[in-house]
Amino acid sequence: MNTEELWQSYLYEVNKVSNLTELQTVKVKFLGKKGEVTLALKSLKDLPPDIRPEVGQKINAVKKLIEEDLEKKEQELAQKALAKKLEQEAIDVTLPGFPLPLGKLHPLTVVQHRVVEIFTSMGFAVATGPEIEKDYYNFEALNLPKEHPARDMQDSFYITEEVLLRTHTSPVQVRVMEKFAPKLPIRIISPGKVYRRDDDATHSPMFAQCEGLAVDRNIRFSDLKGVLLTFIKELFGPKTKMRLRPSYFPFTEPSAEVDISCVMCGGVGCKVCKGSGWLEILGSGMVHPRVLEMAGYDSSQVTGFAFGMGLERIAMLLYGIDDLRLFYDNDLRFLQLF
Fold first, then answer.
1. Are residues 243 and 128 in the same domain?
2. Which of 169, 180, 284, 297 is least crowded, fewest Cβ atoms below 10 Å from its Cβ?
């Protein structure tokens, strides 16, 4: 095949090309290791020496033309491919976007926010403290010395003999009193996580509490009753009734359990309240004089009240839930109900 035939053969093949893949096939056919141009150059050795240089120049000239044409053709096809891709993938920026699912607050977080909102509206400040606590603040400063039988009421997670995961948020109250004594007044709530060795339908190894404390001169039990009644009616509705029952807590004296009229039956009696018409929601009482003294206050001049509630218990009553463990199962079907 002479150079003119070689060039015409190339033009015939390249004119049929419609994409980059076909172009690469043509390139290999003419310029590859076994391509026609390559074979033509190799066949020069079989020609007479006197015409070999002239034929070689013509073949190289055709080779250059093919290379230049291939490069030009490649650019054209690449531009066409890009234009086609852009046309196919064109985005209409005027179309509405895909809505993303919005997250929600966990029901316990919602309840905690509501409880905090109610108490802060009554002048209480929010105080926090460490969840890994010293035995002194968790027990001794709350009138629970070592070997006190009431410690058995709170089966605890000890890290060392003197360090444990706090079993209630009462240590925050002690720390606040120590920090500010003998200044007055003190009005705080302390929401947070606590830990005990419990795990069943109504107990969890980790749960949330919110405790409250007020310390000042001339604080009376009636002040405690008024604060709790206001809280209950704000949270559960104005028709909710409250009942106080004598109880025992080492860190308060006198102490009382606080019941509310059943939120399910309105106090008539149902299976939730076991026919009594009442539901227990929290414990309370006047701060024990020994607790005040250990924190740095003169119990002959200063009095105070304290209360504490489990936020899971409050949430279960508000939402009609009978198994506390649902709050911690991370089941989206349950969480999406709120």
1. yes
2. 180
Long-range contact set of residues 105-108: C-beta below 8 Å, sequence gap at least 24? 105/338, 106/327, 106/335, 106/338, 107/315, 107/319, 107/327, 107/335, 107/338, 108/208, 108/311, 108/312, 108/315, 108/327
Residues 137 and 199 in one domain: yes
Contact 248, 229 (CB under 8 A): no
Confidence (pTM): 0.68
Q: Indicate whether 257 belongs to any domain.
A: yes
Please, which residues have CB within 8 angstroms of residue 268's CB and are 6 or more apart in sequence? 262, 277
> Do 130 and 229 belong together in one domain?
yes
Range of the domain at 50: 3-88
DSSP one-letter string for 67-113: HHHHHHHHHHHHHHHHHHHHHHT---TTSPPPPPPPP---HHHHHHH
Same domain for 70 and 129: no
Per-residue pLDDT of the chain (338 residues; tens, 9 = 90+): 577 887 888 888 888 888 888 888 888 888 888 888 888 878 878 788 888 888 778 888 888 888 888 888 889 888 888 888 888 887 888 888 888 888 888 999 999 999 999 999 999 999 999 999 999 999 999 998 888 776 666 678 889 989 999 999 999 999 999 999 999 999 999 999 999 887 666 677 889 999 999 999 999 999 999 999 999 999 999 999 999 999 999 999 999 999 999 888 877 888 778 888 899 999 999 999 999 999 999 999 999 999 999 999 999 889 888 888 888 888 888 888 88
Q: Enumerate the H helices of the chain as residue ranges.
A: 3-14, 20-31, 36-42, 52-88, 107-121, 135-138, 170-180, 221-236, 289-295, 311-319, 332-335
